[in-house]
Amino acid sequence: xxxxxxxxxxxxxxxxxxxxxxxxxxxxxxxxxxxxxxxxxxxxxxxxxxxxxxxxxxxxxxxxxxxxxxxxxxxxxxxxxxxxxxxxxxxxxxxxxxxxxxxxxxxxxxxxxxxxxxxxxxxxxxxxxxxxxxxxxxxxxxxxxxxxxxxxxxxxxxxxxxxxxxxxxxxxxxxxxxxxxxxxxxxxxxxxxxxxxxxxxxxxxxxxxxxxxxxxxxxxxxxxxxxxxxxxxxxxxxxxxxxxxxxxxxxxxxxxxxxxxxxxxxxxxxxxxxxxxxx
Length: 279
What we know:
Oligomer: single chain
Mean pLDDT: 89
Structural class: alpha+beta
Number of strands: 15
Strand content: 15-25%
């Protein structure tokens, strides 16, 4: 009889504990949702923005969610130094780092040689006007020696050529919408690293006349490339900083102030690449 009473009491305790745990979890989830909603309202942005037709949650499908500690969330993207081989090849190095994070066997050299198309055909005409390739179509210059770089569309295309050979369940997307800071952090919470275009050490852009040229094959279409432009992998955040895999001779994941990065990111046209995993 005593054993039956103990078993019954234990059952009641377990049930009560389950109710309490469920209540605490529900309250926590509700508080998180309210806080998230307030963040979007403060930024005056849509909480349901689509990026290339996908919600943030859909972009995060198939990714492992990073752990959060003391309001800090960081995805463990491998750090790859672009030096000494690729002094101006930061885009390709970031692509290789993201591919490695996704579990593919590649490195900065094999990815650059196999999938990055570059064109170093710069020349001056009789009027001393500089002509050169379109960085929206190819890497402008030689990533092993000198040059400028390429845009998000070019890197996404190179990564998709890689995926077409290795695993077509992956698709690199050059984001076609302005990403707000709330969605940036939500993507990171979903486990999605973001290749972004900003500047070296988040310094201001440097405009120089030699960084402006007429696109080859056109009469007067001018492209301007700003000095200090740089590509990194955004992979974490806390209350004041974003964290990056910065290929510019850094040995570990590095933080930069949120406000400074967001300014450089906007100045570079909100260019970004993420990878969608089709499960």
